[in-house]
């Protein structure tokens, strides 16, 4: 490859040399910041191929340094394709095996399909990469040729299995309707296909990837995600970490299942007081951060109700803020309402160009400006949007949370991992039966979480057969109608009454091409408001709350990434454990 044209530089053609270098630099310079959305940009495909080609070449070269038979590559190497982004590795490995090592197609296919495995991270159609043939074949002609042949042979198999069934071909083809479908490539070539939470894997098998599951059920398996307790408890919440170690020892640091030993302290009033005191100190720590960064005074005795995650319509930050607008209306109308003070904390980043996501952040801040400064509600609601949400400030946020908002439209959140970080830090989940929330509830018990809303089956039913009309709810529910009208009457944007119109439209009418209220926000609004009342009543019973919070910490053992990784090792990669030499012998190694 030509990188930096020294000859043109020598000739004094500085401009041309710089252009060449900038082109090369461009490939590695920016990471596309989208989340659960695919932009279809040429530079993105260039980046994917650049990094994958380098990685596959490096893996093959490393293997060949110690081995001589490339036909046994899969005995030493697995490529676990983490989403569709690296799936071009399948064709790149085929290319190297055939073009550089002169394997036949059949030999190369045998090695490739024993090397590659695929992890699916979403069922949202807009997130699954589908490259236009024109772009893909122009950029990667040899790779496209290989994908075409994989597709041709696969469709032959499909036709043999389902003779005359053109529907199957249309639904399962890797190349169809002018597009290269990377998820289909990964499923066809992968020896394992896994989802990242039990519900998600079941939806893959029974809905989204049903045809593939029926044809190759043995490939499908689940690996529920996890998080590391070393970062999200030991490092992020040192007070709680010491408290845990004082009660159950410190084996939990490397074996989180040991944290279940805390269960016997859930009813211990001394332990409950200690736990609540630690939570309070963590809330003071976060309150200081908020005062410094937002200039907002929040009361650490209030309920810290937190939703931190990427901003996406399916995650329904809009449901949360609409409900806050409703609570504000209630307190304005009835100042005498017995209301337990609440601090609503948001953190999120929106992808560039995701208009409704940016607008939701704008709405959260606009509501915060009004609510935080209205003496009529006596500071009983505070709203904070923490800027620059990232792992470093996330540690402080999880440690200080009382309530973990996990309110995605059921079926849309593949797993979630934020939900696990909150649980580990003793927050109580307020959520839908979606993603790993299902398994969190199973581990901690339904009485120690607050669950509401449509089930994934109900959502899928509405999506497939219709029957949901948000306008009906708007017409019949005055609380909801009032909140929605406040989006377009300048209550929170007197300087521009049309500012939030697109959010209103997304819920009610279809100025846009998509279905109104795609994410069932109005459908789940009242059940959510009712669930929030249950949270308040629960929190008022301090002992019951502390007991439940301790049980959440104690029940979080399953959600260590150590467990997840061990499952990949045992069930997909089939690796033997390497026994490390004793510590005293280690020095010799280095
Ligand atoms: C854990 C984490 C996420 C993922 O959160 P979800 O609630 O699972 O979407 C995103 N960003 C940061 C900084 C995190 O720490």
What does this structure look like?
- This protein has helices at 6-10, 14-29, 42-66, 88-100, 105-115, 133-139, 141-161, 166-172, 182-189, 198-208, 210-215, 229-235, 238-248, 269-294, 317-333, 355-371, 391-400, 418-424, 437-444, 456-465, 470-476, 478-488, 501-508, 521-540, 542-554, 561-573, 583-589; strands at residues 79-82, 116-119, 130-132, 175-176, 179-181, 193-195, 220-222, 303-308, 342-347, 381-386, 403-406, 428-431, 450-451.
- It has 590 residues and is of the alpha/beta class.
- The longest helix is centred in the middle third of the chain and has 26 residues, at 269-294.
- The structure holds pyridoxal-5'-phosphate.
- Pyridoxal-5'-phosphate binds next to helix 17 and helix 18.
Give a quick precis of the structure.
With 590 residues, this protein is an alpha/beta fold. It has helices at residues 6-10, 14-29, 42-66, 88-100, 105-115, 133-139, 141-161, 166-172, 182-189, 198-208, 210-215, 229-235, 238-248, 269-294, 317-333, 355-371, 391-400, 418-424, 437-444, 456-465, 470-476, 478-488, 501-508, 521-540, 542-554, 561-573, 583-589, and strands at residues 79-82, 116-119, 130-132, 175-176, 179-181, 193-195, 220-222, 303-308, 342-347, 381-386, 403-406, 428-431, 450-451.
């Amino acid at each position: 490859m030509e990188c930096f044209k020294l000859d043109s530089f020598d000739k004094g053609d500085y401009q041309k040399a710089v252009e060449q270098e900038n082109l090369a630099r461009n490939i590695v310079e920016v990471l596309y910041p989208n989340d659960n959305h695919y932009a279809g940009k040429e530079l993105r495909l260039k980046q994917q191929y650049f990094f994958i080609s380098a990685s596959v070449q490096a893996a093959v070269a490393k293997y060949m340094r110690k081995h001589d038979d490339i036909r046994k590559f899969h005995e030493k190497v697995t490529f676990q394709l983490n989403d569709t982004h690296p799936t071009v590795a399948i064709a790149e490995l085929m290319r190297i095996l055939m073009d550089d090592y002169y394997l036949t197609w059949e030999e190369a296919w045998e090695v490739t399909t024993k090397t590659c495995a695929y992890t699916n991270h979403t069922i949202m159609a807009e997130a699954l990469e589908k490259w236009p043939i024109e772009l893909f074949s122009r950029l990667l002609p040899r790779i496209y040729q290989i994908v075409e042949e994989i597709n041709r042979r696969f469709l032959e198999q499909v036709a043999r299995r389902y003779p005359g069934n053109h529907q199957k071909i249309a639904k399962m083809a890797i190349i169809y309707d002018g597009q290269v479908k990377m998820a289909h490539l990964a499923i066809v070539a992968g020896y394992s296909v896994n989802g990242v939470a039990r519900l998600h894997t079941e939806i893959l098998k029974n809905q989204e990837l049903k045809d593939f599951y029926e044809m190759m059920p043995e490939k499908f398996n689940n690996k529920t995600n996890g998080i590391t307790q070393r970062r999200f408890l030991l490092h992020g919440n040192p007070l709680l970490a010491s408290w845990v170690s004082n009660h159950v020892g410190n084996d939990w640091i490397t074996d989180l299942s040991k944290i279940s030993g805390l269960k016997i302290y859930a009813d211990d009033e001394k332990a409950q007081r200690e736990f609540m005191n630690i939570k309070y100190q963590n809330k003071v720590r976060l309150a200081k951060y908020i005062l410094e960064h937002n200039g907002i005074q929040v009361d650490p005795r209030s309920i810290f109700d937190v939703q931190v995650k990427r901003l996406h319509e399916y995650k329904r930050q809009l449901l949360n803020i609409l409900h806050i607008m409703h609570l504000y209306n209630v307190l304005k109308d009835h100042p005498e309402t017995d209301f337990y003070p609440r601090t609503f904390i948001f953190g999120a980043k929106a992808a560039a160009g995701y208009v409704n996501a940016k607008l939701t952040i704008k709405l959260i801040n606009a509501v915060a400006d009004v609510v935080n400064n209205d003496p009529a509600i006596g500071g009983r609601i505070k709203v904070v949007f923490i800027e620059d949400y990232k792992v470093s400030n996330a540690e402080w946020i999880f440690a200080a949370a009382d309530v973990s908002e996990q309110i995605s439209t059921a079926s849309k959140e593949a797993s979630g991992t934020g939900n696990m970080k909150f649980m580990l830090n003793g927050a109580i989940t307020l959520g839908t039966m979606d993603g790993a929330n299902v398994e969190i509830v199973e581990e901690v018990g339904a009485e120690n979480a607050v669950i509401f809303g449509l089930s994934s089956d109900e959502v899928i039913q509405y999506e497939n057969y219709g029957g949901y009309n948000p306008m009906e709810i708007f017409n019949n529910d005055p609380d909801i109608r009032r909140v929605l009208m406040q989006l377009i009457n300048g209550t929170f944007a007197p300087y521009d009454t049309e500012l939030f119109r697109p959010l209103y439209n997304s819920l009610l009418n279809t100025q846009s091409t998509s279905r109104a209220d795609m994410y069932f926000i109005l459908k789940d609004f009242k059940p959510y408001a009712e669930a929030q009342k249950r949270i308040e009543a629960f929190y008022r019973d301090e002992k019951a709350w502390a007991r439940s919070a301790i049980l959440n910490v104690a029940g979080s053992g399953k959600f260590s990434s150590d467990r997840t990784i061990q499952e990949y090792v045992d069930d997909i990669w089939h690796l033997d454990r390497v026994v490390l030499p004793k510590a005293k012998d280690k020095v010799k190694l280095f």
